[in-house]
Write a structure and sequence with these properties.
single chain, 268 residues, alpha/beta, Rossmann fold, 2 domains, six-stranded mixed sheet, four-stranded antiparallel sheet, 10 helices, 24% strand, globular, binds adenosine-5'-triphosphate
């Protein structure tokens, strides 16, 4: 099956624990092609651990994870190389290499997966990804310490896009950005999804982001995904955390802002 609606990530019966602490138990999740799936949950509910399990940085106790139909559990790095080059990751805080320039950071995954690419082409690809991420071309020779928080995130996106991925993992991309910077970043994610046909797995606490760009939202609580759907579908559920989160003062403000933006765009 091709096109929108196809399952790109499938998680079944996932269990993760650290010593006595069970973080996930019997967790299921599907991420569909072309969607921006927001992942929310209280602090410590295991959103990052879930992402790390999917991308193979955390070995679960139990469960099955497939990405692009390929099983990710119990397989070596070499065996999953072809799948891994089809995704890009933006970790919390950007995680750029501080001793490398922005352009060199973008080139890291290309050098890793395609060691025979020449310097000139590497420079060209890096420039292209940098501009695509909304940075000016002169950001390429700069070091991360010379960039603002928002620019670092964009540089992180440029690196995540280095291998022309079909799937993006973003861990709290707007954390620490001012509201205007965060809105600009939301717009960038949406534009990239539309232009490149990406599927996006997006961990966020940012209610504005959820309203502005997420097609569906998965809620982590009680060690599993307790609900997944549009915000309207979630609001119809009688779940205490969901109601508190979306109906709290911040949730209502984000909803009003989204309604106002919707009316503006309808008026042209
Ligand atoms: N490597 C690790 N060793 C031990 N415990 C860990 C490890 N990684 C995560 N944990 C624990 O697992 C739980 C879930 O962590 P995780 O970072 O996934 O939470 P989160 O939902 O992303 O939280 P936040 O919203 O605060 O970023 C936490 O209690 C954390 O302390």
């Amino acid at each position: 099956m091709n096109g929108r609606g196809e399952t790109i990530i499938q998680v079944r019966g996932l269990r993760n624990s650290f010593g006595e602490q069970v973080v996930h138990e019997d967790l299921d999740l599907d991420v569909r092609r072309g969607e921006i799936l927001g992942v929310v949950g209280g602090s410590g509910t295991g959103k990052s651990v879930l992402m790390r399990s999917i991308i193979g940085l955390q070995t679960p106790d139990e469960g099955e994870i497939t990405v692009f139909g390929e099983s990710m559990i119990g397989r070596s790095e070499e065996e999953t190389k072809d799948v891994r080059r089809r995704w890009g990751v933006l970790f919390q805080g950007g995680a750029l290499f501080s001793t490398l320039t922005v352009a060199e950071n973008v080139q890291v995954p290309i050098r890793e997966y395609y060691p025979n690419v020449g310097e000139k082409l590497l420079d060209e690809i890096a420039s292209y990804k940098i501009v695509m991420s909304g940075l000016s071309p002169d950001a390429g020779p700069k070091y991360p310490s010379e960039l603002s928080g928002g620019m670092k995130k964009r540089a992180g996106i440029a690196r995540a896009l280095a291998l022309d991925p079909q799937l993006l993992f973003l861990d709290e991309p707007t954390a620490g950005l001012d509201p205007i910077g965060a809105a600009g970043f939301d717009e960038l994610i949406c534009e990239l999804r539309d232009a490149l046909g990406l599927t996006v797995f997006l961990i966020t606490h940012d209610l504005d982001t959820l309203y502005a760009i997420c097609d569906r939202v998965a809620v982590l609580a009680d060690r599993k995904v307790v609900a997944v759907g549009t915000i309207d579908e979630l609001l119809a559920l009688d779940h205490e955390w969901i109601q508190d989160y979306f109906r709290g003062p911040r949730g209502r403000a984000a909803e009003r802002a989204a309604d106002a933006a919707g009316m503006e765009s309808a008026e042209g």
